[in-house]
Structure formats: C-alpha cells, structure tokens
Design goal:
Length: about 300
C-alpha cells in the first residue's frame, strides 16, 4: 500500500529535514544544565504518536481524498511537534519570531485537517458497513447454495463479485479471482459413474473450504469449475494461494485415481462480473494449454 504514497513520504521527509535545518540555523544549542528532560520526554512522546498516525495512514489506506486529509493533518502536527521538541535543545534570539510562528500555526491547522479526514473516514466506514450487512443477508439465503457441494452458486458469485468490484473501484483495494477446473471430468464420469464424480466434487468443495482463507468467497461456477473471489489480494499473493491449492489437490483421489485440476488466478481489471469471469476463463484456458496433459485413459489415473 505504501508504494502509492511515495510522494507523500518524500514530502514528509523533506519538510521535517527543512524544519531541523532552519532551527539549527536560527538557534543556539542550550547548555546541558538548561535542558529540561521531563519536557523532552513528554514532547518526544507526542511527536512519536503524530508520526505513527502519519505512518499508519500511509501503510494501511489507499490513495484518495480522505487519505490526503488524514495525511496533511498528521504532517502539520508532526512538523509543529518536531519544532516544539527542538525548542528544548535550542535557544532563539528574542527578536526572531519565525520559529514561534512555525511551532504554533501548523498545530491547529493540522487538527482541523485531521478532524475533517476522520469525518470522511467515518462516512467510508458507514458505507462499507452497509455493504457488509448486504453481504451478510446473502450469506443467510440458503437458496443461493449449490445443493451438491454446499458452496455458493452462480447467482451468489455474480452478486458478490459485482459488489466487490464496486468497492475495488471506489477504495482502490486489490481484488483477485482464482478459477479451478477439473480436467477431463466428463471422461471420468463416463467410466466411474456420476456418483463417483459427485463424491469427488463434494470432497473437492470440502478441501477448498478448508484450505482457502476465511475472507475468500468460494463458489461453484459450473459443473466441474469453481471460482474463489480473493478480496484485498494482490496478484503475487493470489499465485501463492493457487500454488498451495494445487499441492493440496494432489492428495485428493477418486476411484483410486488422482484427478488433475487446472488453476488460474488473475487481478481483476474490469468493472463488471461477466467481464472479469471471462478474463479468468481465458487465463484458465492458457493454463491448460501450458499444462498440455495427455488424453484421459481409463484406469491409468492420468487426469
């Protein structure tokens, strides 16, 4: 997340360095006996807290208007508190009022900016909570469950994916899609029967539910195809999840055979669920072509 805020980090470092250089240029270092260490402790803690606000804001929030207000408020407070701390080490001439103004003015401006940013943050949270309540209502609607695997079905997938895409566009949070397909599953069903195929699908659904994260939404997309919506997940993290999942799938057997599953993951770049799923299907097709597995031969376990 912090990569989005390199310009803000640079500005903060430049301003704090400029404040330090200006203070050293205008002031004289106090004698050791004149330093009040208790004041230094209190003002140092206040500065550390302001800097932690600034840092946590840039590490955990996406770029946007609310983040900007929180950042500038924290930055002004940090500059004011930094100069206030330097005042404990330096003595300025009586006729120099520059440092006094620089210590006093940024703090109230920073409090105003920070308050405005917190009000925007509160509005964001109210909107997110409304979306989460809507998601919870979907979770309680059992009609959206696939009767065989007890995973969510296609209707729920479209509803959740469209909601997450809207949140992704608004908050600029990463969103990845993982798609899994059982290779040559129709041939397996012809040899061993649909009952064996259904048992494998049930076992596969249980494995997906146990191996994926609590925040991931797992749905049955088609007969032998599954989709997981990976919220707040970058492409690199999604690929690690896919690799882990493929390793676990090797332990899953049906009729004494290990069926092969193709897995693909993408970073959502579209705004509609239909387009994103189409993008995932293309990635899955490319993954199958790269794998180029042999045609199913009954009894040889080479799916």
């Amino acid at each position: 997340m912090w990569q989005q805020h390199l310009d803000k980090l640079t500005l903060a470092a430049v301003l704090l360095l400029a404040a330090l250089l200006l203070a050293l240029q205008l002031g004289d270092v106090k004698s050791w006996a004149a330093i009040d260490w208790l004041d230094i402790l209190g003002e140092g803690i206040v500065l550390a807290v302001a800097l932690s606000w600034l840092t946590l804001n840039l590490l955990n929030r996406p770029a946007g208007r609310v983040t900007d207000w929180l950042y500038y408020g924290s930055l002004l407070l940090s500059c004011s508190f930094a100069l206030d701390l330097l005042d404990e080490f330096l003595r300025y001439p009586a006729h120099v009022r520059t440092m006094s103004w620089l210590e006093s003015v940024p703090a109230p401006l920073g409090m105003l900016a920070l308050t405005y940013g917190l009000m925007g943050w509160h509005q964001e949270q109210r909107q997110i909570n409304r979306q989460l309540r809507g998601r919870e209502r979907f979770l309680r609607d059992h009609r959206l469950l696939d009767p065989l695997t007890q995973l969510y079905g296609l209707d729920y997938l479209y509803a959740v994916l469209n909601r997450e895409l809207a949140l992704h566009q608004q908050q600029r949070l990463p969103l990845s899609i993982l798609m899994l397909d059982i290779d040559q599953f129709a041939a397996f069903n012809r040899q061993h029967g649909t009952a064996a195929g259904d048992n494998y699908l049930i076992s596969l659904a249980e494995l997906l539910s146990s191996q994926m994260r609590e925040s991931d939404v797992i749905c049955r997309y088609a007969g032998d195809r599954f989709v997981a919506v990976l919220v707040h997940t970058e492409q690199a993290a999604a690929e690690i999840i896919a690799l882990h999942l493929q390793q676990q799938l090797q332990r899953l057997t049906a009729a004494g055979q290990t069926l092969h599953c193709s897995v693909a993951c993408i970073q959502a770049t579209q705004t509609q669920a239909t387009a994103v799923l189409k993008q995932a299907e293309l990635a899955l097709r490319a993954s199958k072509l790269r794998g180029a597995r042999p045609v199913y031969q009954p009894g040889h376990g080479n799916l």
